[in-house]
Each structure stands twice: as structure tokens, then as C-alpha cells.
Amino acid sequence: MPTSSDSPLAAGPPGNTPVDDASGRPGLAGPPERPPAALRLDDVAAGYGTVPIVSGVSISVGPGEVVSVIGPNGAGKSTLLKAVTGRLPVMTGTVTFGDRDITNLRGHLRARMGLGFVPQTKDVFDTLTVTENLEMGGYLLAKPQLAPRIDTVMSMFPALADMRSRTASKLSGGERKMLAVARVLMLEPSVLVLDEPTSNLSPELSRSVLRDQVRRLADAGTAVLLVEQKAFEALGVSDWAYILVAGRIEIAGAASSILARPDIREVFLGRSAEAEADAETAGPGWPTSPKRESADHAEPSPSPLPEAGGGTPQLCGHE
After folding, report:
1. Which of 45, 59, 104, 122 has the fewest CB atoms within 10 Å, measured from its CB?
2. For residue 313, what pLDDT is reported?
């Protein structure tokens, strides 16, 4: 049975053919051809204990793509990322990296394979310098490889080169996020997963991170999976998008087509665009969805143990 993000006629990666949403509105016409999937989820369910927070989720991202997963607060985006990165067991379905099934593979082994992850918080080592953070990111590299790789990453983020000896705690929000991405790039991941990279950044810095960093990485050939609360800004730099509502994919399609839908707020929030405009809070993200908010708030706090993703950043973004 096709999942909420697939169509019986779809070919290639999941979501290659947009689907009708639950209220019967037509799907998006004329989907572009997508690259082969570098990371693929098929009919995935994940949650806590025996209770799934997300279910029937099929998504993919290929080389050179920015693929966004967006939706209201409480939709299950964080739970989905935990399943992608190995921090939460998959109840049903499969996670595939290239042609390898990694559904039950631990996070640090996914990192070794080339799956990089930049968490929303605890993404750098505050007491270490910029150079030391990059050295930590390259912990799997042989010593002769470390300095050349740092130089390569610095060339990708020239602003960091002038801050080599500055501790991360002295960086601005935008500089800190730049360092977090650079640290994960030390191992040259083929797939980069970003959890709300614009969180707590100003609108101007948010646009800079998405346009100047995220989009540029994809244009260089990296497959980028982006979970972002600032939905419209994320869509602006994305090739493909999935809309997650109440734990299921409601719409999959080209990001430009989703942006063009006049009913986008009504589709995802169950209200008219005019009413939503009146209720919208500051910033371009989705307002809170009260129905699902309690589910996300029920997620357990990370264990203090480093291997379980505790108080220090995860090496190369994984536990």
C-alpha cells in the first residue's frame, strides 16, 4: 500500500510523484526528475515505547538536492530526524544509505559511512577553539590528513580562517552555526542532515545560513536533508519538500510548486489563509499546532552519557 508520501505511479525516490492531500485537494503537477536517492526512508514508523509519533513516512534525498521536511510544531520532525540518524529505533520500515540497509545501524557507524548530522543545539564545543573543533570533527582521519582537511574546510568558510584561535563561546550565532557545519564536513559526508540550522538566528542571518551555506553545499554535490521551522525560507532554497503533519507526510512535491499553492496555510493548518495571517506570530515559521504539541514535549531528554548524545556535542554530529 502506498504511504502518505508516495503515489502508486511514482518512479524513483519516494515522493517523486506528488499526492493528493487528505482533504482531496489535487497534488502538484509536473514534478521534476530527481537524482537517485543517497538516503531513503520507506514506510518508516518511529516513536517512544510502543507509541509511534511518525508513521508511514517515505522520503528521500539525492546528490545535489536540498530536501526540506517542514510542518507545524509537534508534527514529529525531531522524532523523524532521530530515526534517520540512529538516535531512535525504527519500529517499522527501512532506512537505506545508497544501496545499504542501515535501519538498525548505530549512529556513529552511520557517520563513518558518510552520514553527517548537525543538531539544533550542542553543535560545537564551547571551550575549544575553532581549529580544535575542526580537529574533533576529523577524529576519524589519520594525522597526516587532518591539517590538509582543515585547510580545505576553512577555504569553504573563509570567515572561519580569521577565527582559528577564537573559542566557540566567543562566536556569534551565525559564526557558531558555520563552525557546526564545518565541523561535520571534516569527514566529507555525502549526506548532510540539518536540524533547524536557523534556530535562534535573526531573519537576516537565517537567510544567509540557508542561502550561502546550505544551498552552496548542495550545489557542490552534497545531499542535504533539512528540517526547518522557518518553512517559507526553507522552501526558497529547496528542490523538493515534504510537509509533515501529525506524524504523516501530507504533501510531497517540488518546493517551488508548494510555495506557489495559494491554499498552503489552509492545507497544513486547517484554517483559511486570512485567519492564519491574523494568528501568525513573528517570523516566517509555522505557528504552534496545539493538537500535536504535547507529543513533542513528551520526548525524553537526552542521556547525560556522551554515547547517548548528552551534554557535549556528538563527534561529527553522531553519538
Report:
1. 104
2. 55
